[in-house]
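Workshop exercise sheet. Pairs work together: one partner reads the sequence aloud, the other fills in the structure field after running the prediction. Swap roles for the next sheet.
Pair: D.N. / O.F.
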Amino acid sequence: MTTRVTVLHGGVSAEREVSLATGLQVVAALRVAGFAVTPIEVTRDLGAVIAALQESAPDVVFNALHGRFGEDGCIQGVLDWMGLPYTHSGVRASSVAMDKEAAKAVFTAAGLPVAASRVVSPEELEANDPLPRPYVVKPVNEGSSVGVAILRDGDNRRTEIARAWSFDHRIMVESYIPGRELTVAIMGDRALEVTEIDTGHIFYDYDAKYAEGGSHHTLPAPVHHSVRAQAMDIALRAHQALGCRGVSRADLRYDDTGGEPGKLFLLEVNTQPGMTRTSLVPEQAAHVGIAFSDLCAWMVREARHGP
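Structure field:
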């Protein structure tokens, strides 16, 4: 009997367009893999989403949503309520990973290397520098580098940023780590590879991630062999510390400004990484011999509900 898979994509977050692109690629890949696939474009009408899920009667839901309500435990809770197995992490891991303050507490408790940080209100940011410059300001509950800015010496945008803040009232302020951007994909209990991301931008921002030609990926990353092993170990330990399942991706900064081997810092774990053919996770999977359709099929086979 053919497995029925419903793909949720779109959503209502700032990453809606990314999710739509992911969904289209996943639908095509799953059909190649032999599944009966029904796509559902998610909107703010949750009742309509639930009705569409009931009508499609899937054996498995492929969660291709990104950002708020899609990867923060909200849709996962709905699917748990409905008793539907789904891809990626459950409610608890999804909600903790999406909350940068909570995730950093988990990483610190697990002994993983993280940058110094504070969580402040917009009023506190407006009043004073929370950390020595340079530092990074970012929303606590957004992905894809939405709302991220770097404040260096002489930069007078602090007041402007604080007064225009439109996200969660909490602002994560983090010491800026110089050096290089690395990322590691996790597939179950396996770290796939280390990719270096070169953008030409000040940091790996939204445009660098999603605009055509916005970034260049070097796979495997040209780093010291001990750093490669350490990056893969950090990513796997972070995945396990959060209680993730299926696929995740850890983003790291590598400070090699004093020479190699340098020092690694874990930035965050993405429990719903992009899944187009040219996204970072599928690139790493292909590098180790796993075709995109096989990767998507594996995710379907690993799907379940619950914590």
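Discussion prompt: The radius of gyration is 19 Å. What would you look at next?
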